[in-house]
Amino acid sequence: MWKRNLALCCATSLIFVTLVSPVAAAPGLTWGGCRERAILQQSGRELQCARLEVPLDYGNPAGPTIKLMVTRLMHTSAPYQGVMVTNPGGPGSSGFWTAAQTAQQLPARVADAYDWIGFDPRGVGQSEPSLTCDPGYLDPGTPRADYVPRTLAEEQAWLGRAKAFAADCQAKYGDILPHLGTRTWVRDLESIRLALRTPQLNYFGYSYGTYLGTLYASQYPTRVRRMVVDGVVRPSTVWYDAQGEQNKAFQKRMNAFFAWIAKHDDVYGLGDTRRRVELAYYGMRNALAAKPVGRIGPDEFDDALLPAGYADWKWPSFARTLSDWSKGDAAALTRWALPPSADDQNTFTMYNAVQCRDAAWPKDWQTWKYDAQKQYGEGVRYNTWSNTWYNAPCLFWPTASGPLPKIGGDAELLIAHSTRDAATPYEGAVEMHRLFPKSRMLVEEGGGNHANSLGNTCMRALISAYLDDGTLPPTRKGPDAICAKHPDPVPAL
């Protein structure tokens, strides 16, 4: 689910310009212009691109190879702080722009002292090969069957589609699937460090990128200089149990969204209590189940609203769209619920290719069904069944999975988290803080935006101080520093 937050964590303003001529080579990588290029407004730095060739199988370094897309923004000020490798999460999200987006949000004196490195992990985006399985699973061309199966036939139809997706991945990429997963991505991260000829790297990871970064720090603790992890995955729940915890957290977050709409009933007219707004939402969903609007049925309706659980700055536009649709105006709804793009399809494929490979999933459908029905019956309605089907290919995944690697150690980390984060619940930050005794934990008390600590002035200042000169808050029991949440959004009139 954290993979669906493709662009929420790093809002930024980049200027896109035309292709540039090649620039000087860095040791181990030949840097040149990108097909698409960005100039960082803050300092005028230009995005550069290179491809790094790595073994498909690190156990057979003389065998077939693949290529990783790597991007760079060169430092422009002294003292030089080294390379800062970034990852946006997913798993499966492209990291092409993440370095530029992150640097854009930091003070110039901090951002300009680092070489910012982004990369598309193996199988993702502009890395070669880029994997996409059975596009019909996400986009059959018509509204999908309701996420909530009402009959055994509907349930079996979903299972059949999940099985077909896994089979298509095996047919297309059977030689590649065994060499995917977070363990391999950690080896790729080390290959990037070696190619950059740097004894240590700095790292800034969001969401799933926190798991990738902390596994790297666990295996290569002396090669980490500074590390920031924002919106932290809970290592002990990777990945099946994480879905259930996420479902409960998303229900609470959507309840907060519905309560915010109710608070502004004079603007949106959807109900003056959270419960009335929730009933209005499910009434609209039921109407779409009975009579879809174009390509939009109940599933597409749920998917379109999902970003409201990640980012409250989206609440005004989503509330306005729901309000308009309740009055019979579907124009905004049809613009809102777009079919998945090619990038979305690639992300979904790689999400499964990594998560199904990383850790053991129950192979008995009755376990999944029991857990989903139990949560749904307990009022965890919004995300339970959609999350079940999003991950269902792992029931049939053709490659072996697990065991879980050991996370923790002596590396220094700065952990940033919001207490009401739905995609990566707060317990993940608490657990990671315990596993890395030298870490410090920053908390946005009452905040619910996912992996967006740089969007909070107080959190950004603490992170900037650490990246600037290594300053960490004094250690204490519990969170080491607490920031107030940013104000609630203002409704759109």
Keywords:
disordered N terminus, two-stranded antiparallel sheet, alpha/beta, nine-stranded mixed sheet, 493 residues, globular
Mind sketching the topology for me?
Elements: E1 14-17, E2 37-40, E3 47-55, E4 65-73, E5 82-87, H1 98-104, H2 108-111, E6 114-120, H3 152-173, H4 182-195, E7 201-206, H5 208-219, E8 224-230, H6 240-263, H7 265-268, H8 274-290, H9 298-305, H10 315-326, H11 331-336, H12 342-358, H13 365-377, H14 384-391, E9 414-418, H15 427-435, E10 440-445, H16 457-469, E11 481-484
Parallel strand pairs: 5-6, 5-7, 7-8, 8-9, 9-10, 10-11
Antiparallel strand pairs: 1-2, 3-4, 4-6
In round numbers, the mean pLDDT is 92
Work out the radius of gyration. Answer: 22 Å
Strand numbers in spatial order across the main sheet: 3-4-6-5-7-8-9-10-11
Distance between the termini: 31 Å
Order of helices and strands: EEEEEHHEHHEHEHHHHHHHHHEHEHE
Number of helices: 16
Number of strands: 11
The biggest beta sheet is recorded as: 9 strands, mixed
Instruction: Give the overall form.
Output: globular
Q: How much helical structure, as a percent, in the residues?
A: 25-40%
Query: Which residues form runs of ≥5 with pLDDT under 50?
Result: 1-27
Helix-strand category: alpha/beta
- Percent strand equals 5-15%
Nutshell version of this structure?
The protein is built from 16 helices and eleven strands.
